[in-house]
User: Fold this.
Amino acid sequence: MSETSEVKTMNIAVVPAKNEEGRIGRVLTLLAETRADKIIAVVNGSSDNTLREIKFLRLSKVEILYFKPELGIDIPRAVGAYRAFKEGAKAVVFVDGDMVGNILLLVNDLFLSVRERGVDLALTNCYPDTAYGNELTEQVLLFRKLLNVNLGIYHRIGVATPSHGPHAVSRRLMEMADFRDIAVPPVILAFAVKHNLSIDVPAALHQSKLGSRTRDYFHARKIADTIIGDTLEAFNYFNGKPRTRTFLYREFQGYNPSRRFDILEKFMKTN
Assistant:
């Protein structure tokens, strides 16, 4: 097999990392044991030793994309996906840099779903039961349900979304999609439905088992507003309306204004 053809069959894992010292090494070491042929760590806005920790691992599979400024939520996924696409990836799995849970089998299932079963968007069910735990979570899941019902896929995927948990995309999806939409995860879900791409939930792991960092209420509220706003944007995109983030006269922005689409666009123009 030639080097070129080998590159075109790669499985690539994309790992956003901002201030993940003490965690990123565990995540990358685990991913090195999966079906990932390459791992792209998108280090951005870090003021700790995240970059040094990655370099210290000396993992041959790891490529580092370093950005001094913070890219904002989900932009690193889009940056990593674009680099993976340009490098010929056939399947890309996204794993957050703080996700230290035992997700090895889950990641392999996502790769297999895309590569062997022809799935274009493979998701993880992070809420396999109905005990959601708190009012904030219930609010977010309500909007996720409303979106998936509107998309006509709730009966198949429940409240699963690319906003939460490891997930994977195919080369076919990346060839068709706008990489800026990968930075607004529910929009890429709506895009997949709108273009009759294959969507499946081949993996399940309760969110408490993912090993993600515990944050304070302020962060949780901002994340909730971000995801709710994203689902509203996806709903409007799917229905051919302006991509607003307003519901009942309230605008849900969360961390959306800090998304550095300008840096993403510059990266795509120069790489």
Notes: Strands lie at 11-17, 38-44, 62-67, 91-94, 121-125, 167-170, 199-204, 246-247, 250-251. The mean pLDDT is 94. The longest strand covers residues 11-17. The chain is about 45% helix and 15% strand.
